[in-house]
Amino acid sequence: MSWIRFLKRARWDQERSQEIEGYLEIETADNIARGMTPADAAYAAHRKFGNATLIREEIYRMNTVTWFESIVQDLRHGLRTMVANPGFSLIAILSLALGIGANTAIFQLLNAVRLRSLPVQNPHELAQIEIVGGNHGMGMNDGPDFGLTRPMWEEIRRDHSPFSGVFAWGEKNIAVGEGKDFQEVPGIMVSGDFFRVLGVEPWRGRLLASDDEHSCPESTAVVGYAFWQSKLGGREIDSNTRLFLDGQFKQIVGVTPPSFLGLAVGKRFDIALPECMPKQLSTNVFEESVMGRLKPGWTLASASARLEGMSAGIMAATEITGYNASTVQRYRQFKLAAYPASNGVSDLRRAYDSSLTLLLAITGLVLLIACANLANLMLARASTREREIAVRLALGAARTRVLRQLLVESFLLAAIGATIGVGVAELLSRALVLSLSREGDRVALFTGTDWRVLLFASAVTILTCLVFGMAPSFRASAADPVTGMRSGGRGMTGGRERFSFQRAMVVTQISVSLVLLVGALLFVRSFHNLMTFNPGMREEGITLAFIGFQKSNLSHDHLEEFKRELVDDVRSIPGVLNAATTTHVPLIGGSWGHGITIGKMDGSANFTWASPEYFETMGIPLVRGRGFSETDTAASQRVAVVNQTFVRRFSNGTDPIGQTLRTHPEPNYPSTVYQIVGVMADSKYENLRDETPPFVIAPSTQFPDQRPNTAMLVRSSLPPEVMADSMKRRLGEKHPDVIVYATSFQQKIQNGLLRERLMAMLSGFFGILAALLGMLGLYGVISYLVMQRRNEIGIRIALGASRGQVVRMVMREAGLMLAIGVTIGAVLSLAAGRAAESLLFGLKSSDPLTLVAAIGLLVAIGALASFVPARRASQLDPMTALRSD
Amino acid sequence: MLILQAIAPGPAHGHTIAYVIERRSEDVLLVEHGSLYPALHRLEDRGWIASFWGTSESNRKARYYRLTATGRKQLGVETSRWERVVRAVNQVLRPAEE
Q: Which domains are present in chain B?
């Protein structure tokens, strides 16, 4: 097989046919010379030569690559068939493009969040060092990915034998500029070896190295590519490139490459600062993510074993202080281990992993329904092409050749659909990423098309092609040419078997649509439950503000006084009904807990220190006892209001009022005895989903760790958006040094329901799409059936069947398919529902109402879809029907 | 081999080759002249013969074939192999005739 020869085959064909012509001419001339008539001469020459065309073909075959040539022929023929049926092709390509596009888009997200490796050198060698099982909420925590303290990191840095290099990093918002231009951007604090161990090369200038780490406070910084482009205008980095960061000018020494967005997938850092280590390191602040690059020969398991051996020493050297004995004991038993880190760390992954997998399954099922529709369409079309195929078979085409031809046709459709689909996916995934982003919390994800995405898209395409092309092609190529020719344009009449295949397809479609519809209803209802859920406190008309007054230089003792003043200022704004300060804002994520002892019982409870107006502002009713007043001061008896869950957990049926609880000591939070003076109704705490924990509110005047910032909740008769502006203006006029961030409380809570909204939106969309596609399939098959049977129906009508009887007959057919499909679908959705259980709120996956509603909906539109062709059948004019056949 | 031998003396075109073979074999090897062409094509493909367009005796355009160097060598190889086969067959046949 020679490709050069293959490419020259046309030229050779021409050459040889000319040559053959030449032979014939010479021979004819010779024959004439021998005395034959010209006609006889030519005839004799031909006879002498043999079959010229056959010989030409023989030579041609020598030059060509048969299988390739015939596939090219098939492709060309397929294209012609496509162009000849623009309606069919358009529908097929469009539905495939959408189906494959949706699948690829979800896969792109899944790929970006879970599968893709970090764009660093040999990412598989990276390992994250963590405490096995986490730190059980000890001390202050910066999220599950940042599980080690700085002293622990110092110990690991000193001895890290399994690793060729180690580094630590943490996240921190960094203030850029000051005054009006002040802006907070996402930043990372990195240890000196961060960039070196990762193997990230500078895009401009240099990246941070060990030297940068020693200067404290930091004097150098590196910026991310996007920040460099947007804020520094992509200017060259030189000794004059400085930025005012966190209150002082810092030298910008370099830019990271565009592909490197940091190690937290879904986030992007704008500024990287060298980690500066103060002399006094807190042992109870868990804020570091420590990673290392494994030395050759070390595995995660062997590194973990080694780390476990080192753990006792590390914990002893970094022991937490200011805690009670049992906590310290627990700390000593912490074990370190190495975990894979090639994909980076990600909150997004934790939040969306199961949702994305589920969505991929949903889109896969939608594609399956679309394929079933296409298969039915192809079947219907195959019956009109029966003659063509019969003629080809009769002319000696091999069945395999016809089969291949038909498969190539479906492959063409699938391939074109897939190509458009990948484009669609690009747009879809970008839109999805955008919809995941919240105000002030952008999601930065690489959703481009890499080899995994391409592989996925091609696999899906081939699979689809097989699913929708295989059965019809086999069936068509197996046709008997004699029957095909004889029945001619009438189409097959006796194809009971063919119908059963189409019926099976429709039943599949119906059952799968039911599963998707049930899923959609579950997610929509779950989201509705969350949106209308009463968290036990006021959400509407509340403005949430974070106020910082670091610059006001207030002494520690005057901080509470200043907060009081701020509350009074805000309350004087027209439209404000009430306002309160608090150390912790409920329902927007985040929790604050302390270990407590009450009587003889040990336990833990969540704590908030709030101003007296808190209960009224948030509409949390006091069930018993009293709230706070001006008389609860820093000097008076420590008092607390507890919630009903607290009472149930700790009071054993005794009256909680007057009982005391003692907090366990922590740095800055010495052990304190609080007297319970009131009981408030239960309300949700960290978010809407979690169970209400035992919860204590104490007066803000008695907060042991006063800081120059506070959260404020403001209830107003004006919309929160308007209120936020007036607050900023009023406080800005009176206290120019104060930084105010204000937003709608309800909006903030709903931002936390993004995942639920996304699931409800997408599954709802796909559910409706699936139902529509399924019904389209049912409609198509019933219509087809009616058309095939119009002869019979015509006879029935002629023999006196009433319209109603005909409608009933057709509907019975449809009803049977619906019944079987719905039954299978119901069983499937009950089984599949379990996968969604953990994502639901306020209802079970086997929720009967949802199932019944979905079945009702499906049966209703199913009946409608089959009624239209049934009615058409009943209105057949028997004469025309009989004559036409 | 027959074709190679036919054009060994000098370039010839298809028509001539067909007649040369037919005549030399005293009309024993009578084939459709057309089947010569695929054979020519194959030989040319192997590089044993080369072709060019020329003008025939009767002033017609015709494709002439000539033996290449490899072709000439191949002719030798083929001829001696053929002779060996003939000798062998003859030796097998002769005792049977005796």
A: 2-97 (1.10.10.10)
